[in-house]
Amino acid sequence: MSELSAGAPISPVSPRQATDVLAVARLATGFMPDDEGLALAGVAGLVCSLPAGGGGDSIVEVGAYCGKSTMYLAHGVLAALAGGGCRSVPVVFSVDHHHGSEENQAGWEHHDVSLVNPDTGRLDTLPAWRRTVESAGVEDRVVALVGDSPTIAARWQTPAGLVFIDGGHGHEPAWADYGGWAPKVVVGGWLAIHDVFPNPADGGRPPYELYVRALESGGFLEEIGLGCGSLRVLRRVAPGS
Ligand code: SAH
Ligand code: MG
After folding, report:
1. Which residue in 61, 64, 164, 215 has a CA-CA distance of 20 to 30 Å to 94?
2. Residue 2 pLDDT exceeds 50
3. What is the whole-number distance in angstroms between the Cα of residue 85 and the centre of ligand 2?
């Protein structure tokens, strides 16, 4: 049995497809600067070097919003597949309840009134996320998990080659994401955390605290060359939380 047989079939990918997805990422609404998105894509591509069944099948994104970072992840996978030499074909599982974080609600800094569903009066980013994924032509490579992140994490058994944490940035949601998802990263896989600001003047504390905890846990080592700006990338070197 080949290592690839446990994963999705490898359909040929052209470099052009990967470039098209990058163009969609760049145009999508969201909170991912291009240089950090490209760094994230690079890590997603590395997941293709893990064996299928050993993390290579799956990338988990926590915090999808309108699909911007989702498309950087998909771009990274497609670019790696187009390059060849892959051991696995990761699918991106993109977790979000799509009702926005605290900071996306009316009256807060990151509120976008165009994303409010007029029928319910609530923020709903799922239609925008779907349009993003559809326009990039990657519906076969990206799966939405619509719901509360810790609720999904508590029941999610699939080992992940990459977990990207960019969900709620308050103390409680950020720690729930860390506790729920970091343990899913296989040894040899990666944990990426967005909005890590060592200097409190630059941004909120919880993502930075998660990053520090991950390093102190002994389970992860930072791969400084893979990070960029507020995107920090750690590699799991020992099992655990
Ligand atoms: N990665 C995105 C930005 C994510 S914003 C980009 O590149 O643009 C953070 C997202 O986390 C919001 O869409 C919000 O709905 C989601 N979120 C916050 N708390 C959540 C929870 N408990 N469960 C699921 N999603 C959550
Ligand atoms: Mg972010």
Report:
1. 215
2. no
3. 31
